[in-house]
Each structure stands twice: as C-alpha cells, then as structure tokens.
C-alpha cells in the first residue's frame, strides 16, 4: 500500500520521504545504542570510581592508624614515663603534672587524637586532654577485655564527650618495651571526625559512606547521630571479597551498595573494618534521564537535519531533470537557448543534458555566426562611408581655405583654419594609438590657438616640457581634454587666466601636469555629473583615465586636485616609452 502511494508522488517527494525515513531510522538506532552504551559506561565508571575511592580511603585510614600505633610504641619505649608512674615517692597530682609535661614533648597529632589515658594496675588514671573535653573513666569491661586480649590492639566501643563528639577507643597493654613489665593499660581516643575527613570529599554527591567495625558498629558516618549504632541486619554488609557491589532495597529505596575491606595490613592492628558506600539508584537514574533528554534533543535536531539534507539531496538529483524539462519547454515555445550544464556527475542525467546542450550549442553557434556576419556587414558599410571622407581630402580642403584667407588677408580665418587642420592631422594620425609628447604639445597648441581666437585675452598658456621626453610615446589626446576643461570651466568666467603645462620624467614614469588659476571645482560633482551626461567634459577626463589604466595598469592614471576659487592641478602619470 505504501509503495502504491509513493508511486503516485513525484520523484522529488519520493526521494525526500525515502531519505527522511532512512535517516530517521538510522539515527534512532544509533541514538538508542548510544544511550544504552552511555548508561553502561556511567555504571562502569561509577563502580570503578567507588573501588578506587575505597582503596584510597583504606590507605588513608591505614596511614592514620599507623601513626597512632607508632605513638603508642613511642609512649611504651619512653623510660621517663615508665619510671615516673612507678615512682612511689611522687604523689598522684605531681605525677599528673610531670606526665603532662612529658606528653607535651611527644609531638602528638591533635587532629586525630582527642585524649590519651593511662590506667595503672593500681587503678590510677592519668588523662592527657587536648580540647578541654572530659570523658568518663574508662569502662572496666573494656579494661578487662584489653587485659585478657592476646592481640596487640583492642578496639573498644564508640564513646562521646560532653560536646557529643564521637571517639573510637584504641587500647593496648602498657608494658615496659625493654623489660616487658606490665604497668597498666594505654587508651588512645581517636576522633571520629578524623576518619570522616578522610572519605568525606570522595563520596559522590548522590550518595553517602560510612565505616563499620567487625561487631557491626558504625564507627564513622556523615550523620553523627548514627555513630555508635549497631546494625542489626548485618547481611547487607557482609562480604568475603576485597570489593563487592550490588543493587538492593535499603532504607526504603533502591540503592547500590559498595563494600570494601580495609587493607590486610590493618589486620595486625586487629582492625577488621568495612567501608560502605550507599548510592541512590533513583538519583543515578535521574542523571541518566538527563542523558535521555539530550538524546531526544539530538534526535530532534538530527531529524531536522535529515529533512534539510533530504531536500538538498533530492534537489541535487531532481534539479537537473527539472532544469532540462524547462529548457525543452522554453526552447520549444520561446526559442530560449540556455547552454549551462548544471549536472556534472557523469551519470545518465548528465549524458541526457549533455546531448541537449550539444544540440543547442550548435544552434547557438549558427545564430552567433549569423550575427557576426551582420556585424561585419555593418562594419564594411561604415568603412565605406568613412572612406568617402578621406582625411587627406579634409586636410587639403582646410589648407585651401587657409590660403584663400591669406590671399584675402583674413588673418584670423587663416590662423583658425590652419590650426584646425593641424589639430585634425595630429588627432587622426593615420589611426595610430600613440603619438610623441612633442606631437601632443602641437595638438594642444593648435587647440589653444583656436580657443584664443574665440576668447581673445581670456588666458595665456606656458609650456615647461623637459627636452628629454619630447620623443617619448604617449596615448593620443592625453593633455587636450584637460586644457579644454581648464579653459571652459576654469578661466572663461575670469578676466584673465593662466595655464601652465609641465612635463618631466620621474624614474621610469612620465609625469604631465596641467595647472590653472581658475575658479576650481568639486571633483566629486564633476565625475558624478559625467555619469549622467557623457557630453560633459568630465567624460573626456574620465575617458583619459580609463584609457591610461587599461594601457599601463592600475597604478597609472589621472589625479586631480581642485578647490573652489583656488585653481586646479591635473597630474597625469604614464609609463615612459621612447620611440
């Protein structure tokens, strides 16, 4: 049914639907696989992180307990303490003072130890307190346990001080290290906060951790009210492996429980503790849900991209076919020829379009040939017309008029006609593009002669031309338009004006200048007006600049400096050529 519906659609619609469906299906599979893989990686990373973290915590606890055990050994080998406590000649109060002095000199780390208590066999208790906290007298049951225990260290139950701070009791027999004579019992109160600081920053924010003893007593916890509590259902945290994790329901919610045994090195200190981390699975799933949202957002964006790409791809496929169809229609109806080749893939559509283009190219060539024949015909007609006006005929006629004026003693007419004849002779110059600087000066002189007859006493002109450049080649009619502009727009309204023409060579360039002291003009207005009215003299100026740039390059051309009522300077820069 779906295929039947597709066949009723045009080619582009079929391509778009097929491409969009394919891309969306592929994207869905890819994104769903990425989601499952990312969840797997998160869980794996979490378990690896917990294992590494718990190993680091174990090392930290081991280092702290080793320091405390080392302190106990230092106290045991201190003969001064042993001799002081055995001295019958010193009363109890004096012994307390002297013992405090000795312990002050022992460099005890108060960050992890809250108090040291020594209970002698004659039941005298000596307390060394750091934080002004008071403890109850050591429990007799714990003292008896230490006395009967054959292990080096005996761990007592958690106790609390007057400020409700928790402490772990580290107990051992106090003997003379060298003689093994028993003096009593040594108890070191370890701060629970010191244990908590070791692992506090290492637990993920969506979980918590704690330490339990072999007797299932919580000896360190973030919730201080739980420190010292006994865990009744110990099956949660029993493990025979160095590290174990599993998912279960704990405290009313599904959680991941990770348990690790502390380093075996602590067994010599009779320390069989477990470190437990509880991770909320619901919170972890919330993080994974965020990933799902990102996946959905990416999927949505990919769908949009899929649609855009499908439209683009379908246009690339259908475009040449549609273009060819329109070309055929236009050629059949309006005889419009379009030889552009849109498709360059080399496929079947390209072959079809190429054949069509070859056909219309042949037709276009025939039309072009026909147009060229007509153009040649017009040129021949123009040449024939121009031939009727022979330049020599024009020169000879003007010369004849000049001689007649001379015979009639019409000096002004003679001068005018001869100047005009010379002007035409140089400007036409057999159709050549280049003339010498000297010929260009003669052209200007002829033009100035005519203008002085038209406007007598209106201006004078001065030529300062370096003799070394007189035979340099320049483009024909380079100076004359600027001299004409100076007369027509700069000096005609003044009583008397002056024009100076300079010419010199600068390195490999030729510099020509036309300077007048006329009324000046706005150069922007000149050229904008020239665009509107090509009969205006500005067009001739612009034409000179364009011809120079076309002939010599962009760094050559015309530069005009002019200000109102201050005159004008035109500088023409050309490449120096010598005939």
Describe the structure.
The protein has 579 residues and is of the alpha+beta class. It folds into 3 domains: 10-326, Beta-Lactamase; 337-386, no CATH class; 457-578, Heat Shock Protein 90. The protein has 14 helices and 19 strands. The protein has helices spanning 2-8, 11-76, 79-86, 92-104, 140-148, 192-199, 281-334, 348-388, 391-407, 411-428, 437-454, 480-491, 523-532, 537-552, and strands at 113-120, 125-129, 154-155, 159-160, 166-175, 182-191, 207-212, 218-221, 243-250, 253-261, 274-280, 434-436, 459-465, 472-475, 497-506, 509-516, 557-563, 567-575, 577-578. The strands form 4 sheets. Strands 1, 2, 3, 4, 5 and 6 form a 6-stranded antiparallel β-sheet that branches. A 5-stranded antiparallel β-sheet has the order 8-7-11-10-9. Strand 15 and strand 16 form a beta hairpin. Helix 13 (523-532) crosses helix 14 (537-552). It is elongated, with a radius of gyration of 56 Å. The two termini are 88 Å apart. Residues 380-389 and 529-536 have low confidence and may be disordered.
CATH class of the largest domain: Alpha Beta
The gyration radius over C-alpha positions equals 56 Å
Q: Which architecture of the largest domain per CATH?
A: 2-Layer Sandwich
What is the CA-CA span between the terminal residues? 88 Å
Shape: elongated
Helix content: 40-55%
Q: What's the total helix number?
A: 14
Strand content: 15-25%
Number of domains: 3
Q: What is the total tally of β strands?
A: 19
Structural class: alpha+beta
């Amino acid at each position: 049914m779906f295929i039947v519906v597709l066949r009723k659609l045009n080619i582009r619609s079929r391509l778009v639907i097929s491409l969009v469906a394919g891309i969306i299906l592929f994207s869905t599979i890819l994104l769903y696989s990425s989601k499952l893989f990312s969840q797997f990686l998160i869980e794996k990373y979490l378990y690896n992180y917990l294992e590494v973290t718990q190993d680091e915590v174990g090392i930290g606890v081991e280092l702290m307990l080793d320091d405390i055990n080392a302190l106990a050994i230092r106290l045991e080998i201190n003969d001064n303490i042993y001799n002081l406590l055995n001295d019958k000649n010193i009363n109890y109060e004096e012994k307390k003072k002297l013992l405090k002095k000795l312990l002050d000199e022992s460099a005890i780390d108060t960050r992890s130890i809250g108090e040291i208590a020594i209970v002698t066999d004659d039941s005298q208790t000596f307390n060394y307190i750091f934080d002004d906290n008071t403890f109850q007298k050591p429990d007799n049951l714990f003292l008896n346990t230490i006395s009967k225990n054959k292990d080096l260290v005996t761990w007592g139950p958690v106790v609390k001080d007057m400020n409700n701070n928790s402490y772990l009791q580290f107990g051992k027999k106090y003997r003379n290290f060298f003689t093994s004579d028993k003096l009593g019992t040594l108890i070191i109160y370890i701060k629970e906060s010191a244990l908590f600081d070791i692992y506090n920053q290492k637990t993920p924010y969506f979980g918590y951790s704690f330490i339990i003893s072999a007797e299932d007593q919580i000896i360190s916890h973030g919730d201080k009210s739980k420190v010292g509590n006994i865990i009744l259902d110990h099956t949660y945290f029993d493990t025979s492996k160095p590290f174990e994790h599993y998912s279960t329901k704990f405290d009313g919610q599904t959680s991941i429980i990770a348990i690790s045994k502390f380093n075996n090195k602590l067994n010599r200190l009779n320390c069989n503790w477990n470190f437990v981390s509880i991770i909320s699975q619901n919170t972890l799933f919330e993080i994974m849900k965020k990933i799902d949202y990102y996946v959905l957002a990416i999927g949505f964006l990919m769908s949009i991209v899929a649609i855009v790409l499908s439209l683009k791809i379908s246009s690339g496929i259908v475009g040449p076919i549609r273009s060819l169809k329109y070309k055929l229609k236009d050629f059949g109806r309006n005889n419009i020829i379009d030889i552009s080749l849109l498709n360059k893939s080399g496929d079947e559509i390209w072959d079809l379009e190429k054949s069509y283009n070859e056909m219309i190219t042949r037709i276009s060539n025939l039309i072009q040939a026909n147009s060229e024949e007509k153009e040649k015909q017009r040129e021949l007609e123009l040449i024939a017309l121009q031939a009727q006006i022979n330049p020599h005929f024009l020169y000879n006629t003007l010369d004849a008029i000049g001689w007649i004026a001379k015979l009639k003693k019409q000096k002004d007419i003679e001068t005018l006609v001869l100047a005009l004849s010379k002007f035409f002779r140089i400007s036409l110059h057999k159709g050549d593009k280049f003339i010498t600087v000297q010929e260009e000066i003669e052209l200007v002189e002829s033009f100035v002669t005519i203008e002085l007859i038209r406007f007598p006493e209106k201006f004078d002109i001065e030529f300062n031309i370096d003799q070394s450049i007189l035979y340099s080649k320049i483009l024909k009619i380079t100076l004359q338009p600027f001299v004409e502009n100076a007369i027509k727009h700069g000096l005609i309204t003044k009583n008397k004006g002056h024009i100076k023409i300079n010419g010199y060579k600068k390195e490999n360039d030729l510099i020509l200048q036309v300077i007048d002291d006329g009324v000046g003009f706005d150069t922007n207005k000149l050229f904008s007006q020239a665009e509107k009215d090509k009969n205006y003299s500005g067009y001739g100026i612009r034409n000179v600049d364009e011809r120079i740039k076309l002939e010599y390059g962009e760094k050559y051309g015309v530069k005009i400096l002019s200000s109102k009522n201050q005159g004008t300077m035109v500088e023409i820069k050309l490449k120096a050529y010598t005939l």
